[in-house]
Amino acid sequence: MALSHLSSTRSNRFLRPLAAAAAAAAASSLCRPISTSTEPLVIETSIPFTPHKCEPPSRSVETNPQELLTFFRDMATMRRMEIAADSLYKAKLIRGFCHLYDGQEAVCVGMEASINKKDCIITAYRDHCTFLGRGGTLLEIFSELMGRQGGCSKGKGGSMHFYKKESGFYGGHGIVGAQVPLGCGLAFAQKYNKDENVTFALYGDGAANQGQLFEALNISALWDLPIILVCENNHYGMGTAEWRAAKSPSYYKRGDYVPGLKVDGMDVLAVKQACKFAKEHVLKNGPIILEMDTYRYHGHSMSDPGSTYRTRDEISGVRQERDPIERVRKLVLGHDLATEKELKDIEKEIRKEVDEAIAKAKESPMPEPSELFTNVYVKGFGTESFGADRKELRATLP
Amino acid sequence: MATVFQGLGATAAITAAANPLDSNKFLLSSRRSFSGKKTSLVVVRSDGSLNLNTGSSAGARRLDKLVTNAVATKADAAAAASASKPGHELLLYEALREGLEEEMDRDNRVCVMGEDVGHYGGSYKVTRGLADKFGDLRVLDTPIAENAFTGMGIGAAMTGLRPIVEGMNMGFLLLAFNQISNNCGMLHYTSGGQFTIPIVIRGPGGVGRQLGAEHSQRLESYFQSIPGIQMVACSTPYNAKGLMKAAIRSENPVILFEHVLLYNLKERIPDEEYICNLEEAEMVRPGEHITILTYSRMRYHVMQAAKTLVNKGYDPEVIDIRSLKPFDLHTIGNSVKKTHRVLIVEECMRTGGIGASLTAAINENFIDYLDAPIVCLSSQDVPTPYAGTLEEFTIVQPAQIVTAVEQLCQ
């Protein structure tokens, strides 16, 4: 079976010399291990980048088998995690608002592949996968979603407030668009401290119509701040399609005097290339806008069925043609980096990991009542707080 | 606030403990502040005694001392304030600038952002000269985009910078309300303590000289229920400089309310470095008959009324509450326990203002000590009119204060 794959590969530049030998080995029913090679592999993105006032990067993306398999694993974990969160929400273990990212995994995985932990990422409320990509653990995520002590914000933040300071993940914000000026502040601090790092401020096509975005863009361009504004365009702002909300749907052009790039957000390699290009560009020339053309399978949040403003055919069409995980799967199989069975085993392993994390998170206790009053102010400031009835739950903070 | 007390340990404890009642009210600290170095400095409490203890138990050792009259009308009063050294005279906006400059010298992470703060020097001259000294990256002229630059300040604070955001007029910060409420106040909580937001948001507000309705707003009433922020109001050059420095050093987000009409107040302040406690009220004039609580510009109306009241034989105790969130219920409570009558004089609107919250707080905690209901004199619930006479009727005038005290003390 490996031999037939070899003959039908697409336009890859290098044929690994070992492939033939490996194929022979496989044919002789010896189980070949999954590829961990770091030999470079150059793959072309399926569609070119569309530039605005800049030179687009090349369509040929350099990657390697290990990276591709990491992409597969990371995206599959994120997908599984979001589906599990869906079930937990329906089981009423997650309450409030729960905004799921499945379908958009390529954006955060591709971004992570091109940056380091000193670069900052700030996003809005659809932050579970971005948090995972920045180094969060499944246990932290599920504990926080269920409001337990073990959560990344000690159960006090919830789905929309994930943060990880040491990995440069600044959240996690509930108000649409408010995170973009914060992102400019992060970039300002990076410039102030003279690190050679950048900030990615993510927002959606709905938030792209917010005034504060243009205010922040103006200031960033004026002061040459190292910020990359990433519009995750999933074509629907809550329940309103983009053509009904925006006069100009070319979000990458909206910066006008700021260069922009439109990227196929379902192609993890295109995202990686664009983010790498953007980082280099921004450190020399000031802000840039990236528009990631992506799609979400779930509704805006768990309270939105997602089918009243779009057809099920559209959703399943995108799933069949553009799904990011399927693309990587085809790439991996096409370049013979792993077999179908191995990929399925990875997925089973991930499922098990996720289930274990959920079980462990369910055991984590709810926060103590005294936690209500901690972290309102930074420790060292004495204050007294009262409970709702003004008599009980009185806590005197140190 | 812990950092404020660190320097006290070695130098202050030995000498000060020996003689707290000394007329040398300020411990001399010979080391000037330079960036990166920690000086030993003294927290001078509002009554002139030295603060030797951390935490609220310091109140137990309060001394009833008359603090100098904040409006430096008499030379001997001014001299008594800084007995050790003559000090220097300056206007309130210069005091703010001094505090700001000292903190910027001391800590590289302090930066100022706002409209016209840099090359123009600040619309009220608070930041004049700072851009030349510190450069464009530390004193930033922003475009007219309050939402964005307040958000920027908060984002920068998340990484560890200590920005000071200036609203040209407090009323303009309404455009940044979302950033102040959600991101500034709540991020420390929703991140489970990961981020601190050591930002200072300051600007002039209040009813000025016929500036019209939109430029005469009092935002302390809108911001007071945001959890996680601290609010202070300065009223004299002395406490302006002290509060500015304390606010910059605080790890919590602090909103410093200044008043448009108070910028040209002149007072003699000490040469040595000092800080005012952010959560403490200032005893302006001790008395026996009635407690008058006030802040910012109304302090001067109250002191004017106090002169008339003293002539009429009353002995009002005037407290400048300074800390609008949280209230210094310790000082206020002790005063209520002594006088049993409370009058609140404020510039906020009647509905939902600081006075309303203060009335509720005092009623809840000290109802047993009150001989009469609390009277709260506030501005009228109207947009501030342009006409001079109407504008005078909007805010509380000294005559009204005198009448209220007479009625309460019957």
Automatic annotation (TrEMBL), chain A:
<dbReference type="GO" id="GO:0004739">
    <property type="term" value="F:pyruvate dehydrogenase (acetyl-transferring) activity"/>
</dbReference>
<dbReference type="Pfam" id="PF00676">
    <property type="entry name" value="E1_dh"/>
</dbReference>
<dbReference type="GO" id="GO:0006086">
    <property type="term" value="P:pyruvate decarboxylation to acetyl-CoA"/>
</dbReference>
<keyword id="KW-0560">Oxidoreductase</keyword>
<keyword id="KW-0786">Thiamine pyrophosphate</keyword>
<protein>
    <recommendedName>
        <fullName>Pyruvate dehydrogenase E1 component subunit alpha</fullName>
        <ecNumber>1.2.4.1</ecNumber>
    </recommendedName>
</protein>
<comment type="function">
    <text>The pyruvate dehydrogenase complex catalyzes the overall conversion of pyruvate to acetyl-CoA and CO(2). It contains multiple copies of three enzymatic components: pyruvate dehydrogenase (E1), dihydrolipoamide acetyltransferase (E2) and lipoamide dehydrogenase (E3).</text>
</comment>
<dbReference type="InterPro" id="IPR029061">
    <property type="entry name" value="THDP-binding"/>
</dbReference>
<dbReference type="InterPro" id="IPR050642">
    <property type="entry name" value="PDH_E1_Alpha_Subunit"/>
</dbReference>
<dbReference type="InterPro" id="IPR017597">
    <property type="entry name" value="Pyrv_DH_E1_asu_subgrp-y"/>
</dbReference>
<dbReference type="InterPro" id="IPR001017">
    <property type="entry name" value="DH_E1"/>
</dbReference>
<feature type="domain" description="Dehydrogenase E1 component">
    <location>
        <begin position="73"/>
        <end position="369"/>
    </location>
</feature>
<keyword id="KW-0670">Pyruvate</keyword>
<comment type="subunit">
    <text>Tetramer of 2 alpha and 2 beta subunits.</text>
</comment>
From TrEMBL, chain B:
<dbReference type="GO" id="GO:0009507">
    <property type="term" value="C:chloroplast"/>
</dbReference>
<keyword id="KW-0670">Pyruvate</keyword>
<dbReference type="InterPro" id="IPR029061">
    <property type="entry name" value="THDP-binding"/>
</dbReference>
<keyword id="KW-0150">Chloroplast</keyword>
<keyword id="KW-0786">Thiamine pyrophosphate</keyword>
<keyword id="KW-0809">Transit peptide</keyword>
<comment type="subunit">
    <text>Tetramer of 2 alpha and 2 beta subunits.</text>
</comment>
<dbReference type="GO" id="GO:0046872">
    <property type="term" value="F:metal ion binding"/>
</dbReference>
<dbReference type="Pfam" id="PF02779">
    <property type="entry name" value="Transket_pyr"/>
</dbReference>
<keyword id="KW-0479">Metal-binding</keyword>
<dbReference type="GO" id="GO:0004739">
    <property type="term" value="F:pyruvate dehydrogenase (acetyl-transferring) activity"/>
</dbReference>
<dbReference type="InterPro" id="IPR033248">
    <property type="entry name" value="Transketolase_C"/>
</dbReference>
<keyword id="KW-0630">Potassium</keyword>
<keyword id="KW-0934">Plastid</keyword>
<protein>
    <recommendedName>
        <fullName>pyruvate dehydrogenase (acetyl-transferring)</fullName>
        <ecNumber>1.2.4.1</ecNumber>
    </recommendedName>
</protein>
<dbReference type="InterPro" id="IPR005475">
    <property type="entry name" value="Transketolase-like_Pyr-bd"/>
</dbReference>
<dbReference type="Pfam" id="PF02780">
    <property type="entry name" value="Transketolase_C"/>
</dbReference>
<dbReference type="InterPro" id="IPR009014">
    <property type="entry name" value="Transketo_C/PFOR_II"/>
</dbReference>
<feature type="domain" description="Transketolase-like pyrimidine-binding">
    <location>
        <begin position="90"/>
        <end position="265"/>
    </location>
</feature>
<comment type="function">
    <text>The pyruvate dehydrogenase complex catalyzes the overall conversion of pyruvate to acetyl-CoA and CO(2). It contains multiple copies of three enzymatic components: pyruvate dehydrogenase (E1), dihydrolipoamide acetyltransferase (E2) and lipoamide dehydrogenase (E3).</text>
</comment>
<keyword id="KW-0560">Oxidoreductase</keyword>
